[in-house]
Design goal:
This protein folds into 2 domains: 61-243, no CATH class; 253-498, Tumour Suppressor Smad4 (Sandwich). Helices cover 35% and strands 20% of the residues. The protein is built from 15 helices and 19 strands. The chain is globular and about 65 Å long.
């Protein structure tokens, strides 16, 4: 018994020693791993408090975004002061802060609250929260022209005084427009003032598509619509505008509308009154010349005249009178289609209404071709079946359709055409016949009546057969009265020498 007990005690001692050795080995292994590896954040109980506080905190996406786009407070206040005072005052407090750092991608946002089925207010709230109230603007309250002229002018003035932060902010600035094609065109037109005044870097423009067609957004990869104003979706779009996009060039086209009499015309924002330019047939001593008026603006996607502009005008008037019916892109398109039927575009072939007849009754079209060496104007025949003439810069019209299509090599050679691009210095001109024809064109079963390609156009509108005509420019339509005294309304379209800069979403 004694011998057996001794053996048991010996075995127990050996087992105890083995357990102790294994435990020491395990502790040694953990110690070596701890020396070579950082302690996981989750295992906070095994780390001393001072070690935990030294570990880097994970940055949220909102914090990362704000770090990239938020302009230093003193510059935000200076810009806001300059805009509110129309440039009379441009700074509050000390002139500049040399310790401030310019963000990697400073951003100004313009949001049209009337676009996107009235989604604007909710979207604006998220934008203000994610960026700052001083960097988000309502163009209906704060004109984009004032931001460009006075706000950017403030940054430029501070940069000349030696403020490196202001200089880098101005050079890196990007602009994001939340709205439809009309709003985007309006902002681009204001930014174009920088070209005329030679004011340095032109900020590239990205888009949050809130319109009905959103052809500019489609053409540059921003999608067909922005249907959700959730905070996560807004963050995604802002990151895309600051680091998920690259600049590219876009042709700009200047439109000048000259009329033989001062008529009450509600022009869109993009058209501004100009100093009087006499018409060719006006006598310098003729008192009628004093009644002339001229308006000028810029478009980037399309200019059209005829039945399609009439439908667009009716839709815009209806939406402004009853905003509750326009709740989003889908409902807008349904209402738009219904209004097309109500206007009678599908019945134009058998309609007796003068406004439903071919535009060739009031329109004469002259063009200058790119390959022309003489620079002479050439008249283009418009078939009597055409009830709308569309002049396009992009290959997207009416919500993503391409009415111009892809002409064959044989057809291009016969008609003297080239591949259509947004930066080739040419406009594509085509005709739409009626609602049925256009409906098939919009679903790519037919192509429009190709009329020509041109680098300059001149449209003469006579009021002998009609009292008014409808036009639209980048989704902004208006009703234009015509003179019945034989004096034409002249529309001239020429390319702006310097191109705009867009952001192409990846």
């Amino acid at each position: 018994m004694t011998e057996q007990r001794l053996q048991e005690e010996e075995l127990q001692e050996i087992s105890s020693q083995m357990i102790t050795d294994l435990s020491n080995a395990k502790d040694l292994t953990h110690s070596k791993e701890a020396d070579s590896k950082p302690v996981p954040l989750a295992d906070r109980n095994a780390v001393a408090p001072d070690t935990v506080s030294a570990l880097p905190k994970k940055q949220s996406r909102s914090e990362y975004l704000k770090e990239r786009v938020l302009i230093p407070e003193y510059l935000r206040k200076a810009v806001l002061s300059a805009v509110e005072s129309k440039g009379a005052s441009y700074i509050e407090g000390r002139p500049f802060n040399q310790d401030a750092q310019a963000p990697a991608a400073p951003l100004f946002v313009f949001i049209n609250p009337k676009s996107g089925g009235r989604m604007g207010p909710a979207l604006q709230k998220h934008l203000v929260d994610l960026i700052s109230a001083e960097q988000v603007f309502d163009p209906l309250k704060t004109s984009p022209s004032d931001i460009v002229r006075h706000g950017l002018g403030c940054l430029e003035k501070l940069a000349k005084e030696g403020d490196d932060c202001a200089r880098l902010t101005r050079e890196r600035l990007r602009i994001l427009v939340a709205g439809g094609d009309g709003t985007v065109g309006w902002v681009l037109g204001c930014i174009g003032e920088l070209h005329l005044e030679d004011r340095g870097t032109i900020p590239p423009v990205g888009i949050i598509p809130l319109g009905t067609g959103n052809d500019l957004a489609r053409s540059f990869g921003w999608g067909k619509s922005f249907s959700s104003a959730h905070r996560s979706g807004v963050k995604k779009w802002l990151l895309k505008a600051t680091e998920g996009s690259t600049p590219c060039s876009l042709d700009c086209w200047q439109v000048e509308v000259r009329t033989g009499a001062k008529l009450r015309v509600a022009f869109p924002h993009a058209l501004k009154p100009q100093q009087h330019i006499p018409l060719a047939d006006e006598d310098a001593n003729n008192s009628a010349a004093d009644d002339s008026a001229s308006f000028r603006g810029v478009f980037y996607n399309y200019f059209s005249i005829g039945m399609d502009a009439q439908v667009a005008y009716g839709f815009h008037e209806l939406r402004n009178k009853a905003p509750w019916i326009a709740r989003g892109p889908v409902s807008n398109k349904i209402i738009y289609s219904g209004y097309t039927c109500w206007q009678g575009w599908f019945c134009t072939p058998c309609s007796a209404n003068p406004r439903a007849r071919g535009v060739n009754k009031v329109l004469r079209l002259h063009i200058q071709r790119k390959q022309s060496t003489t620079g002479d104007w050439e008249e283009v025949h418009i078939p009597s079946s055409v009830r709308a003439v569309v002049i396009c810069n992009l290959q997207s019209y009416g919500g993503g359709s391409n009415p111009w299509g892809l002409p064959t090599a044989k057809s291009m050679k016969k008609k003297g055409l080239v591949d259509a691009k947004s930066d080739d210095g040419l406009l594509e001109v085509f005709g739409l016949r009626n609602g049925w024809d256009t409906a098939f064109i919009m679903i790519s079963l037919l192509t429009a009546k190709r009329l020509c390609q041109a680098e300059a156009l001149r449209l003469e509108l006579q009021g002998n057969n009609r009292s008014r005509i409808y036009m639209q420019m980048d989704g902004e339509p208006w009703r234009h009265p015509l003179n019945s005294d034989g004096k034409p309304t002249i529309v001239e379209i020429n390319r702006v020498p310097v191109q705009s800069t867009m952001l192409v979403a990846k």
